[in-house]
Write the structure tokens for this entry.
Amino acid sequence: MVVEKAQPAGPREKLLTYGAKELSDAELLAIFLRTGKRGVYVVTLAEQLLGHFGSLRRLLSATLEELGAVGGIGVAKYAQLSAIAELGRRYAASWMQDEQPLLNPDMTREFLMSQLSDEQREIFMVIFLDNQHRVIKNSQLFSGTLNHVEVHPREIVREAIKVNAAAVILAHNHPSGHAEPSKADKMITERIINCCQFMNIRVLDHLVIGRGECVSFAERGWI
């Protein structure tokens, strides 16, 4: 007689048996939520949340009020979800810091989108690299309003000299979600390039981050 192998009882058991990659977004989310709500199994609650917000990214960037509108989501679960999102951002930052020379544009794009795509105001970020294009540090140097951030090229150069950077990658977000660079974006990029040239610091790229999209100045041939 052939005895069929019993299936894991839940997401945690499935993870331990098959590995985290085999879990759906809802199953992974259920592990962090830990419990459902009255009459609703935790995986079902996770599926409802994902369905309501449309994606994992939108869910993890939701406010307490937005989550509360779903029903059954209080401060504790909001704290859990916020912690997951922040842990993901910090993991990405740590991974970038520990990686080998930054030669893969996709790696840069994914990292910057994880850091900037959900910001509600414009943030200007700089990745500082050594002469072998290894990451020295990344900094959110300037922050602004919903549609404007004031950038000071000399501050970028000053920070680059402080950490002995040979090159930089620039990035900022558009909270509107549309990543197409503006005339002002092009002008500040030129100013930064000109300022960096005096200290023999290369500007490798400037990436504009929207919601789920990214525009690279280098890929457009503007740098």
The two ends are 69 Å apart (CA to CA). The chain has a mean pLDDT of 86. The first strand starts at residue 123 and ends at 129.
